[in-house]
Design brief:
single chain, 437 residues, alpha+beta, Lipocalin, eight-stranded antiparallel β-barrel, 8 helices, globular
Length: 437
């Protein structure tokens, strides 16, 4: 709590000084055209000022994301632009806010505080948010890598107040590959910390303390909400269109809002260890598992759909992940309370690549029981692969591919009922993310 008061007082002072420094009387402005505070008109104003915020650099233009928000609840909308690049996963974010007279779009000053890098806000469309006296504190994770042997996870907050966007790290995790037992092989170790600064020493945390660090930081005077937004991307054609951008921004604004949903709020916390199948705790080790380059090793289910419905895995509480090991084998965990086949836990399933016929219609069980395992695909080869495995109630076949544009793992799941092996398989579509693509 002492750290909380220190940081928030420092933020208050920062914003006060920023306000004082800009208190000089401006030159008389020329007569402005008629303006409107209506959100639809503000969205139109943002679209008309695309020259200020639309990324045109050819190296990142196609991956830039945009969202219309009102982070500080002042009824003046913002345009946020963000993109992530590099193997170290570095994000770059800028923001603009509609002016007080609703006549122009003004840049928002981005204050970095003590962060090592900017939060990766473009990785999600739902965020934990602590709302209270000093504003809306939006929680965003920041993930950084230094090769395969060093990785960092930061729990940051963002605060928009008086025209400035501030950020601060509440806690962070360091994952190191270390040979602690002397067997010549690296093991994963996770270490958790609350950062120091302003007379406060850095503090080592347990994994449980890391998980509760934000709740402890804000205490009970701040209400817990989920903040939703909708990111939009514009390809070369859309960037030239006079219609696509205004329509997309209007759709983005319609998706923005704060909702009181504690179940969803709690699910938005993902411990770093979950990326490694929760194999380690603070200071404890587990064998490090490397994935082949074209198939990043740890995948979490993002969306699942059948012919009847599509479901958000996180929102619906579906626990599912897949691990692809360096020896080209897959481990699959699936638990969905609405699916009678659950739970399913299969380890070290052999993976077959495209040369074994992936892409054909789901084969009959007798033909699919023993796929040959081939070598990992070359970097320039199609990264399609398949897995076949048996469970107590039937035979399963996965046909999968990694999206070349978005880096997501697209899986078609065929399941033949053990009692009716000649019947057509049940087909389920699954989309996995490794948190990077």
């Amino acid at each position: 709590m002492k750290r909380f008061l220190t940081i928030l007082l420092a933020l208050t002072l920062t914003f006060s000084l920023a306000a004082c420094s800009g208190s000089q009387q401006p030159e008389p402005e020329p007569e402005q055209p008629e303006t409107s505070s209506d959100p639809a008109d503000q969205v139109k104003l943002i679209a008309e000022n695309r020259d200020l915020w639309l990324v045109t650099d050819a190296t990142v233009a196609d991956i830039a994301q945009y969202a219309v928000t009102d982070l500080d609840d002042n009824s003046r909308l913002e345009l946020i632009a963000t993109f992530t690049e590099g193997t170290g996963q570095f994000s770059s974010t800028s923001a603009w806010e509609v002016s007080e007279d609703f006549a122009s779009l003004q840049p928002v000053e981005y204050l970095f505080g003590e962060n090592h890098s900017e939060p990766d806000i473009g990785w999600s469309e739902s965020f934990r948010c602590y709302r209270g006296e000093l504003g809306n504190f939006v929680v965003a994770m920041d993930n950084m890598k230094n090769g395969v042997a060093e990785e960092y996870y930061y729990q940051d907050f963002l605060l928009l107040r008086e025209g400035s966007l501030d950020s601060y790290t509440v806690s962070y995790c360091v994952v190191l590959a270390e040979d602690s037992n002397g067997d010549g092989e690296p093991e994963l170790h996770a270490y958790y910390y609350a950062p120091g600064g302003d007379g406060v020493e850095e503090e080592e945390l347990s994994s449980d303390q890391f998980a509760s660090s934000l709740d402890d930081f804000f205490g009970y005077n701040y209400d817990r909400y989920v903040m939703d937004l909708s990111w939009k991307q514009f390809d070369a054609a859309a960037r030239k269109s006079e219609v696509d951008i205004p329509a997309a921004l209007a759709d983005s604004w319609s998706a923005f809002g704060f909702r009181k949903d504690m179940a969803a709020f709690n699910k938005l916390f993902v411990a770093p260890s979950s990326y490694y199948d929760e194999l380690y705790e603070n200071g404890e080790s587990a064998p490090i598992v490397y994935g082949i380059e074209s198939l990043p090793d740890y995948w979490t289910l993002q969306e699942i759909s059948t012919e009847l419905e599509a479901r958000d895995a996180i929102a619906d509480g579906i626990d599912c992940h897949m691990i692809i090991s360096q020896d080209i084998k897959a481990t699959f965990h699936y638990n969905d309370e609405t699916d009678a086949r659950s739970p399913i836990d299969i380890e070290n399933m052999p993976v077959s690549t495209a040369e074994d016929g992936v892409g054909e219609e789901g084969t009959e069980p007798a033909e699919a029981e023993e796929p040959d395992v081939t070598e990992a695909p070359a970097e320039d080869a199609v990264s399609d692969w398949m897995v076949v495995f048996k469970t107590e109630d039937g035979l399963n076949r996965f046909e999968a591919t990694v999206g070349t544009e978005d880096g997501l793992l697209y899986v078609t799941w065929y399941w033949w009922d053990e009692e009716e092996p000649e019947a057509d398989p049940v087909i389920t579509k699954m989309i996995f993310t490794n948190g990077v693509g």
